[in-house]
Amino acid sequence: MPEGHTIHRAARLQRELIVGGAVRVESPQGRFSEAALDLDGAVLRGIEAYGKHLVYDFGDDRYVHVHLGLFGRFRMGRGEPPEARGAERVRFASECGWVSLGGPTACDLISDDERRRLLARLGPDPLRGDARPAPMIERIARSSAPIGTLLMDQSVVAGIGNVYRAELLFRARVHPATPGRSLEGDTVRGLWRDARTLLREGERSGRIVTTRPADRPHPRGGVRRGEQYYVYHRTACPCRLCETPIAAALQAARTVYWCPSCQRAGR
DNA sequence: GTGGGATGGGCAA
DNA sequence: TGCCCCTCCCACA
Fold first, then answer.
1. Which domain holds residue A53?
2. C-alpha angle with apex A40: A37 to A46, nearest 5 degrees?
3. pLDDT one-digit tens code per residue, A192-237
4. Does the pLDDT of residue A267 top 70, yes or no?
5. Same domain, A108 and A154
6. A86 within a domain of the structure (yes/no)
7. Which stretches within chain A are classed as H helix?
8. Distance A253 CA to B10 C1' (A)
9. Is A245 among the residues known to form the active site?
10. Which position among A52, A91, A139, A234 bears the catalytic label?
11. Cβ-based contacts with strand C at under 7 Å
12. What's this model's pTM, rounded to 2 decimal places?
């Protein structure tokens, strides 16, 4: 379930398990074997998350770049790793614990140059403490593209995916088709701040929840299935605030959801 | 049991 | 814009 919060959470949990000592590196599936052979036994110096990208630093100009894509998934734990599974692209194991990766879009050994080029392609990441929103605000202010497309563009802002896109726009009462340059600067700054809030909560809990307790049927209990979103995947369901059926359309080749009444169409 | 869709993105055209 | 990558899960039979 990979939006930026998943990646930052993975980086944090994996640091405790495998950073700081020699790491056994294997590729049970075979598709990362050559690199695994090179890295096996090296000391893992750090793990960094940038948007939806994860970078493992093995020293000597060797980094492993991982992007989960739509299908990728981590498993991890303390102690000895379990029996190898069929579709396991790479497995890291230290004295403390293990990390296993399946189904990623990218899992490559890269140099520092390649790492820098990768990061240069990314906009600011709301989950990174050192990130400043100015480049995102400028890109949006200059663009005639719809804000729903811009929020999904990783070179504008890094880490937002299809769920956060729809939910951020609902919370801001902004229609996804609104051209970037017709938004007020305050609205865009508000989107950045809300992205930071929601992504941080997602990073902590490992789950995306965007509804405020007051807008849920059971405000005091835990967040039940089907109550965590305002609009995402709720086509034709009544809006939680005004009962208008939620609308859906393709935007940037992905389905975007919105409330036609709460989110007024921009020009 | 099975098949389609999914929280992504690079690439060709 | 559409195709491909290539895995899991759930709705449906």
1. 4-120
2. 125
3. 999 999 999 999 999 999 999 999 888 887 888 788 999 999 998 9
4. no
5. no
6. yes
7. 4-18, 33-39, 112-120, 134-142, 147-150, 162-172, 185-205
8. 14
9. no
10. A52
11. A 29, 31, 69-71, 73, 85, 87, 102-103, 105, 253
12. 0.95
